[in-house]
Amino acid sequence: MKETVSILDGNTFLVSDGRGDVDPSPSVPTGLFSYDTRFLSTWQLTLDGERLHALSVDDIQYFETRFFLVPGEPTHYVDAKVSVIRHRTIGGSFVEDLAVLNHAGEEVELTVRVAMGSDFADLFEIKNPQAKRVPVAVIVEEGQLRLRYQRDNFHRETVISTTAPARIDPGGMTFQIRIPAEGEWRTKLHVRTFVLGAEGRDFRDTLKLRHARSPDELRHELRCWAAAAPTLNCEYPPLATAYRRSLTDLAALRYTSITEAMELVAAGLPWFMTLFGRDSMFTCLQAMPFTPQLAPNTLGPLAYGQGNRCHDFRDEEPGKILHELRYGESAGFEEQPHSPYYGAADTTPLFVILLDEYERWTGDTTLVRALELEARAALEWIDSYGDLLDTGYIWYQTRNPVSGLVNQCWKDSPESVSYRDGRLPPFPRATCELQGYAYDAKIRGARLARLCWGDPAYADRLEREAAELKVRFNQDFWVADGEYYALALDADGGQVDALSSNIGHLLWSGIVDESRAAKVAEHLLSRRLFSGWGVRTLATGCARYNPLGYHVGTVWPFDNSIIAWGLWRYGFRREAATICQGMLDAANYFNGRLPEAFAGYDRSRTLYPVEYPTACSPQAWSAGTPLLLLRVMLGLQPEGEHLIIDPAVPDGMGRIELLDIPGRWGRTDALGRSRSD
Amino acid sequence: MGGEREAFLLSLGTRGSIVPPHLRGTLRIDLVTADHVEQWFVEIAAGNVTVNRESRPADGVFTTTPELFDRLVRGETPATAALLRNEATFAGTDPRLILAFQRLFPAPAGAEDPRSVARRHAPHGAAWRERLRATLDRKSAGSS
User: Fold this and answer.
1) How many distinct structural domains can be found in chain A?
2) Which DSSP state fits A650?
3) pLDDT tens digits for A533-549?
4) Within a domain: residue A36?
5) Chain A residues with beta carbon closer than 8 angstroms to that of B22
6) Enclosing domain of residue A379
7) Would A213 be classed as within a structural domain?
8) What residue of A is the nearest CA neighbor of B116?
9) Could you read off the pLDDT of A421-470 as tens digits, one per residue?
10) Same domain for A582 and A647?
C-alpha cells in the first residue's frame, strides 16, 4: 500500500502521497475533504515536467507537514541542483508554501507546475464509485482558479489563489521562474473551500460557526488541551508515546458540527469524519478520566438528534439515538439515509450508560437533569421499539433494504454475525452485547432516577427489569456445549453459536452470572480468541474466521479496551493486564497510534501486528484505547466523592504515575507499579 | 395547498409537548416566491410551540419555497436533507433549532410500526415467545 500523509483539523483533512501529491482516483480517498465533500482530487507538483521525490517528510503537527523534495527518481546518491520545500497547513483552509531552492552557483530557469482539479465526490461515491450527474465547471480568474460544482441548489466551490504570478489554465498553474545562484523562489498557494448556502454565502458564516482556526490558534489550543489532561510519567516508553499520540489525535479529531456550535469528536480518518453515535460515545467513555469535557459535547447533539417518529428510510424510531450524521450530497439528495441515519441498536442504551458514567466522574447532575426527558425516552425505546419481537431483548432489522445497514451493532459489516458453521442467521437478530448494554443502561438509569430525577419508583422498576433480563439472558444465550455466550439469538430464539469477542463486552456490562465469568475470561484469553496482541473479533475454528476479515478475525483495539475493562470489572486483573500489555506492544509498532484494526494472525507467526488493509487511522476509539487501558491498569473507579485507585500493572512495565486526574474530587494522582519490579 | 400548510402550522400550538422542555428559541419561516414572502413566526419554549403570522426578528430564519414546505408538511422529505441540498436554508445563532424544528414535521405516509414488520418476518418467533414466557413463568413461580 502506498504511504500516505494526512493533515487534518476536525472534519477538514488532506490525504496525499509521500511527496505531497494527490493523484486523481475515483476510488481512493486521497485529496482535500471538508464536510464529506472532496474539494481537491488532483494536486501534483512538477519541475520541468518531472515529478519529485521525497527526501524526508516532517509531520510537525496534526495540522502541519513539511516535505523536502528533489526532482527525479531516487538514485543511490542525490546531488540535486535544486530542491523543493512544501510546507502545508490546514486550519479552516489549506495553505501550501512552495519554495524552490537553487543550490547551484549560477542562475536557473525552471517551469514549476501544479496540476489542480476536483471531482467534488461525496465520500460515499468514493466508497462506491459512480459518475457525477453534473460536470464540474472550471473558471480561470485573475490570480486564481475557481472550481465549481452545482447540482440544483447544492453548490460547492474550491478557489485556489497564488501570491506569485502564474499562468493559470483550467488544469492548474504554471510558473516560469528564474532563480539566482544560491537563491530561492516562493509562492503561497491558498485553497479555500466553500459550502454555499443562504444568499450564496458559506453556511459556516451564516450559522456563525467558527469558520477557521489559524495554525497559531491550533498550536495554542493543542497546548491547552494537552495541559488540561493528566500528566503521565512512566518507565515504559511505548505507553508514554501512545498516551501523547492519543491526546493529540483526539484533539485533531474534534470538529465543529453544522448542527451544534460546539466541538464534537469525529470517528476517524478518512471514512468517518463525522458524528457517529456509537464511536463518539465509546470514545467519551474511554477518555472519561482524561478529558471528561468531551462527554457533554457528545451527549448534547445526540439528544437534539434523538428520533421522534418512525421513518423507514432512516431506520428512525421515537427515542432512538442516531447512528451517523453526514453533510454531503448523497445525504442531501436522499440517496443515502444519513440526514441523520438511525440504524444502530446499541446507541440508545449507550446514551444512558455514558450519561451515568459522566456523572460518576464529574458530579455534574445539572446535565443529568437537563437530559432527563431524552434519557427516559432512550430507556423506553429499549423495551418498546428496540424489542422488535416482544421477547425482552433488543433486536435489529433494517427497514431500508437499499442503503440501510443489515447489522446494526458495532460489527456492522454484512457477514459479521454467523453461526459456528458459517451460516448467516435470518432477521431480526439480537446480538449478545446489545442485551448487556440494555442491562447496564437499566442499572445506571435506575441510579440516575434515584439521584437526579427524584423517581425511586421508576428506579425500582428499572432494577427489577434488569434483574429479570439477566436471568433470561443467562438462560437463553449460554451455549452449554461450548460454555460461552452465543453471539446472538436468531428470530426463532435459536442460538447463533459462534465464539466471538462480544462476550468480553458482556463482562463490561455486568450481565454475566458470577459463576460463569471465569469461563468467559478463560475463553477470551484462549488460543482461539487471543492472538498474542489482542482478542480476535471471531475465534479460530469458526467457519467464517479469517485473520483479515473486517469483523470476523481481525483484532480491534477499541474492542480490546472494552474487554480489558470488563475483565477488570469481574476481578480478572491479570487477564486484563495481559490484554493491556499486548495492545501497548502493538501500539509500539504504529508509533503509538493504534489503527482501527489489525490482522488476527498469531503473534508468534508474524512477530509484528499486520495492519488491516483499509484501516482508518487516526480513529477516535483507537486513540481512546490507550487511555482506557491506563484506567484499567491503574484500577481507577469513582466511588462517591472519591477516586478508587487499585493498580495491577503488567509485569515489566515498571512504574506508572498519572497526575492531576480530573473529577468530582478536583484533581488527584494515581500511582502503580508492576509486581516484579 | 396553502390551506394545508396553514392548518399544519396552526395545529403545532395545540399538539402539546413535541419538543424537549430545555429547548427554547424563536424561528421565522420565510416562504419565498417570485413576488411574495409568506412569513410565519414560531416560538418554542417549555415544551410548547406557539405559531403566529408576525413578521419579527427571530433567533433563526428558515427560508425556502412554499412548494418545499408543503412537502415537509406531508412528510415527503426531511428538513435536514432539504437543508443539506440547499433547497432550504437556515441562518441564525443557534443551529440546534434546526434539529428541534425538524421534529415538528410528520413521518412519511405509510411508515409502519417496525415491530409489526419484524413479527411478520419472524413467524416462528411467536411460538418461541410462548415457550419463553412459559419458562419464565415457571421460574418466577418456582422462586416465589
Assistant:
1) 2
2) P
3) 999 999 999 999 999 99
4) yes
5) 370, 373
6) 229-673
7) no
8) A388
9) 999 999 999 999 999 999 999 999 999 999 999 999 999 999 999 999 99
10) yes
